[in-house]
Amino acid sequence: MMVSQTGLLFGAEAAEAVSFSLLPALVIVPLLTALVIGLLPSSRGEYARLTALVGSAATGALSVYLLLDFDASDGGFQYVVAQDWIADFGLSLQFGVDGISLFLVVMTGILFPVGILATTAEHHPKAYHLWVMVLMAGSMGVFMALDLLLFFMFFEIVLVPMYFLIGGWGHGNRVYAALKFFIFTMAGSALMLVGIFGVVFLTARQTGVVTFDIRALAEAQALTGFESRAVLLAFALAFAVKVPLFPLHTWLPDAHTEAPTIGSVILAGVMLKLGTYGFLRFGLYLFPEASYDLAPLFLTLGVIGILYAAIVATMQRDLKRLIAYSSIAHLGFIMVGLFALNSQGIQGAVFQMVAHGISTGALFILVGWIYERRHTRLIAELSGLQKSAPIFAGVFTLVMLSSVGLPGLNGFVGEFLILLGAFNDEARWWAIIGTSGVILAALYLLWAYQRVFHGVAEGENATMADLKVSEFLSILPLLALIIGMGVYPKPILDRIEPAVDDLIAHIEANVDGFDEPEPDVPAEHDPRELLIEAFHEAEASHAESAEGEGE
Amino acid sequence: MLAQVATPEVPWSLLWPFLLMALGAVALVTITSLVTELRTRQFPSLFTIAMAVGGGASLPYIWGRIGEIPERRILVLDGAMSIDYFTIVAAAIILSAVVFAAIFLDDYLRREGLDGPEWYVLIMLSASGGLMMAAAEDLIVTFLGLEILSIAVYVLAALHLRRAESQEAGFKYFVLGALSSAFFLYGIALVYGATGSTRLSEIDAALFATNARGLVPAEDSSMILAGMALLLVGFGFKVSAAPFHLWTPDVYQGAPTPVVGFMASAVKVGGFAGLLRVFLAGFGRLGDDWRPVVGAMALLSIVIGSFLAIRQDNVKRMLAYSSISHAGFILIGLFAAGSRNAEVAQLGTRSVLFYLFAYTVMVVGSFGVVTLVGGRGDGKHDLSDYAGLAQRSPILAGFFLVLLFAQAGIPFTSGFLAKFGVIQAAVRDEAYVLAGVAMVAAVVGAYLYLRIIKTMFFSDGAHTVPVAAALDTNVEATPDGAVIAPDEQISLPPAAVAAILVAVAITLLWGFAPNIGGDILRDAAATFLR
Amino acid sequence: MLLNQYLLLAAALFCIGVYGVLTRKNGVMVLMSIELILNAVNINMVAFGVHNAEAGAASVGGAVFALFIIAVAAAEVGVGLAIVLLIYRNRRSINVADASLMKG
Q1: In chain A, whose CA is at the least distance from the CA of B419?
Q2: Interface residue of B443, B455, B459, B520 to substitute, partner A, most A CBs within 10 Å
């Protein structure tokens, strides 16, 4: 069934037919895969993984095809599918991608097959892969939905598979972690529903049309002043839980630590992005004026997140928990980029969302492998792994450096653009404080690396198996992306830029007295060139260090 | 020469579903008394299902007959009953509840070693009362329907002769039910005194007349307000809305489980159908007076249903509280349906009908699962009895999972769109407080369902392993060596499982494609528009 | 007599009935209290019916309704007594306060 559908899409059918059905296919293919897995005979549980792999890879291939087929010069939504759903309620089935969501979709399409390939279910492979595929369908849907309620439904439905993945296949205190995760997020999304009703019906009162269409609502801009700020805050609370922003982050370390590897990969890679994507799409786009007014709040919370998470991460004894906290810090950067409210900052934020998904996903996979081999994630019990597993150490170094933000790797591009954008008249002080977070990130990650991989290898540490070929191949796509996106980010930024420029224009048009804050960098310097310059400077030293780590 | 007596014309074909239920009950009790060997077979169950399906099959025909008339309603029996689209939708819901109840009862009676067609007879009688309430255009008929509906269920609740809880539940239900019926009657008396009629259309006209003069005589107005309040008490009791919910947890816990499923679905639907008709067709003009009260009841029900459920440890009690909170959500829809704005009013009625249908399917499915888990003796309803259900019976746990998530209002289930519908109606009516509290309470309520799910899937019961998964049916023995004792095996009668599967399928289908039947609901919702 | 006097009598009976339902512990007494309420309604109904007829309405609805109520009340009490009997058989007591198997 899937194969024939894929064949149809890639066949010599008219291009229009492809564009019409491509986006729904990204949701339907994983869903059908889940169905197939559910219908597999119980005695054939081992085929579940294969089916999931095929299904997710087919979806990933579709998303890559989407990327190649995407019109880079267009900042608007493409491949839009609009279908009436419940006309009485003003609901429609609307999907579409622009340069911002495109890469999140592609990232989702890549992370899932890699995650499935790189991990195995410890038990009940059928149910495990079924939930993973449901999760994939939901994650795809949430980035493509152009109808507010449809977005909400996807936003909330991803909780269910994640709840079961953490609760069923996690470690330690998994049931508690799963429950905490579910309740936190559900409470947040209830408020978002309040916000959705608010924006839809306050708009309807002015325009007389009840619609949940994001674009129509953004065009109408019916809410002003207190109303728009209140509704934005309702949305923001839901997203802040997901991001997570400082006081609402407590579910994340638990969920991340107790989740099975694939759960952590998807949580960090995809689900946290729902929050920042939400801020972008529903904060800046739907409520430009309120977002502008409240930007200092979000910048402050973002910066607090950066510093707080960095400090807490330094003290972590569990490697996985440490990475979880590093995620909070990275997401804080993304918030700073978004609310720098200029082209560089937002582009950087979008880029960083993708980069963080890939590098943190890879980190969680690697930590998962360490746990498989050593049955511990405590930093204190690990030592000298570099000697027993040199290739492992090399791969880990690369991924970790990308997370640190070393020039030439993908983490750098996003952070650089974010800071470049944030150093402007409005956000300068936050940028300055935030920058220290970069240093702290280097500190805690390198320190952790040193404790785990250097030193004396004794006992089990001395005999830990190195990376298997199959494992290396499964993580290879992520390594390639880490380097590829770092070395040559232009094709990605080219596609993000038009969408971001449209967004900035939208904000400028709707906020009185708002002018895109120019970065402090003199205007004659094109930021792109600065980026390339910085990259060349760093290239030499980076190459040395990578070799030095002994790949 | 024979004298002519003027009798109202009886259009038998339009009353077909009602007649099948009422006469079917009489026929069943007669047949099984004459041919006694039929009592223990599946005959009573099949007979009941046949009657309900037969009644359902006539609904499209009646729908067509209504469509031929411009007013879209046929007044029958001298105007005492109104056959309109609303009646048909309510009848369809009640009849489907009958089918489900008959299927679950068959296995239940076999398992419990109880025999007797009386259960089915009472179910059919009760359903006929519900149908009467839905169609009643006269408060006398509403009252008769209410009593037929209730008295049969009092007996059903007490009918498990070996369970003392059953009789206790029956008695509690009876006393409080009779009390509420008495209040209801007193309300009818006051309304009759104030308006001079018990006919809804005449009540409406009387209210219009007094309003048109611009003068409402003080005694009349206070009398009709008191009457309305008492009617609301009676209805509130039947639909278990707070503050008239106190009987619900005890009765749900004690009554035989398939009966509870029927109570939570058909009885509630009958009550709501009557409530909607009386308050929209009869007291529609006094909306400003009764809507605040209905809104307050809605809030109270939702809050009580969501918060008090948290400390329960009996699954039937939990579902009782959840049914209280569902009643609150439906009352929100009624609140909007009473709006002067025709568009909002129609949306409100529509959302109530959608909610009732979705809720009926969810709740009969849920109690179907509870019936099966309850085991012989109908006693395993403690939360701990659900520990590791995913291991013992993955299919049942999977079904229950979907139904509970639907009740919690998780997207892509009918439960989500049902809640969305009533809340949207409230927001359109600018009742923001109502909508806001409902949404917050929905989150709290979700914890209740999550607790059951957690117990089923992740709990370390003595007989289970920690981790369970819904769809792996190949789990037989538990790795920690605990052997499931034979009496712990949950028997899965095919008919009951198929019925639950249908409920699950409808719940999911409506979550994805709620437009199915949307036109029907829209037409039905237009019934009370002036 | 004035209509009010009938209504007051009915209201008094109603209140006595409600009081009885709430305070009586004996199951049969509870049933009797319920009967009292229903009869209060009957008085109301008949009084209103006569009042309406005097006001020129052709309806005899009140009296007819009272007949219905008498029939329904009989059915209700029949069921009620049957349930009380069942409880008595199981428990040798018709004290409502003893019926407390379920709490929560």
Answers
A1: A193
A2: B443
A458 and A485 both lie in a single domain: yes
Q: Is the Cβ–Cβ distance between B15 and B87 less than 8 Å?
A: no
Among residues A90, A125, A148, which one ends one of the domains? A148
Instruction: Please give the residue of chain C at the shortest CA–CA distance from B195.
Output: C52
Q: Could you tell me if C25 lies within 8 Å of chain B, comparing CB atoms?
A: no
Q: Which ranges of chain A have pLDDT less than 50? A: 1-19, 548-551
What residue in B sits closest to A86 (Cα-Cα)?
A: B515
For the record, the structure tokens of A253 come out as: 């370390």
Min Cα–Cα distance to chain B from C97, Å: 11
Shared domain for A122 and A196, answered yes or no, is: no
Q: Does C91 touch chain B (CB under 8 A)?
A: yes
A86 with A185, same domain: the answer is no
Pair A407, A325 in one domain:
yes
In a domain, C102, yes or no: no
Q: Confirm whether A250 is domain-assigned.
A: yes
Number of structural domains found in chain C = 1
- C6 and chain B in contact, CB less than 8 A: no
pTM: 0.88
A136 with A200, same domain: the answer is no
User: Domain of C39: which CATH number?
Assistant: 1.10.287.3510
First CA to last CA distance, chain B? 47
Total tally of structural domains belonging to chain A:
2
> Are the beta carbons of C99 and B172 separated by less than 8 Å?
yes
Report how far apart, in Å, the C-alpha atoms of A253 and of each of A177, A321, A366, B48, B408 are. 9, 6, 18, 56, 26
Q: Could you tell me if residue C101 is inside a domain?
A: no
| Residues of chain A neighbouring B421 (CB-CB closer than 8 A) | 89
Shortest CB distance from C79 goes to which of B155, B169, B193?
A: B155
- Asked, for residue A153, whether it belongs to a domain, the answer is no
Cross-strand bridge partners of residue A213: A147
Considering the domain architecture, whether residues A324 and A439 belong to the same structural domain is answered as yes
User: Which chain B residues contact residue A159 at CB under 8 A?
Assistant: 410
* Nearest Cα residue in chain C from B176: C21
Q: Which residue in chain B has the smallest CA separation from C45?
A: B189
CA distances from B231 to B121, B512, C54, C75 (A): 28, 38, 26, 21
Domain residues for the domain of A86 are 1-148
Instruction: Note whether A125 and A181 are same-domain residues.
Output: no
In a domain, C99, yes or no: no
Contacts 24+ apart (CB under 8 A), A508-512: A510/A221, A510/A288, A510/A289, A511/A288, A511/A289, A511/A292, A512/A289
Last residue of a domain, one of A102, A125, A148: A148
Its domain, for residue C72, covers 3-92
Residues in B 420-439 with any Cβ partner in A closer than 8 A: 420-421, 423-424, 427-428, 435-436, 439
| Closest Cβ opposite residue B171 in set C14, C41, C87 | C87
Which of C57, C68, C79 lies at the smallest CB-CB distance from B151? C79
The residue assigned the tokens 């792109």 is: A528
Chain B nearest CA to C1, separation (Å): 16
Contact predicate A303/A336, CB 8 Å: yes
Q: Counting Cβ atoms within 10 Å, is residue A179 exposed (0-12), middle (13-18) or buried (19+)?
A: buried
- pLDDT tens series, chain B, 530 aa: 567 777 777 888 889 999 999 999 999 999 988 988 887 778 899 999 999 999 999 999 999 999 888 888 888 888 889 999 999 999 999 999 999 999 999 889 888 888 778 899 999 999 999 999 999 999 999 999 999 999 999 999 988 888 888 888 888 899 889 999 999 999 999 988 888 888 898 888 888 766 544 445 544 578 888 999 999 999 999 999 989 998 999 999 989 999 999 999 999 999 999 999 999 998 888 888 899 999 999 999 999 998 888 888 899 999 999 999 999 999 999 999 998 888 889 889 999 999 999 999 999 999 999 999 988 888 888 888 888 888 888 889 999 999 999 999 888 899 998 998 898 899 888 888 888 888 888 888 888 898 899 888 887 554 443 344 433 434 444 444 344 444 467 788 888 999 999 999 999 998 888 888 888 888 888 888 76
Dist. CA B458–CA B461, nearest whole Å: 9
CB-nearest partner of B249 from C27, C80, C104: C104
Are A107 and A165 within one domain? no
SS3 A26: helix
In a domain, C47, yes or no: yes
Contacts of C38 in chain B (CB under 8 A): 182, 185
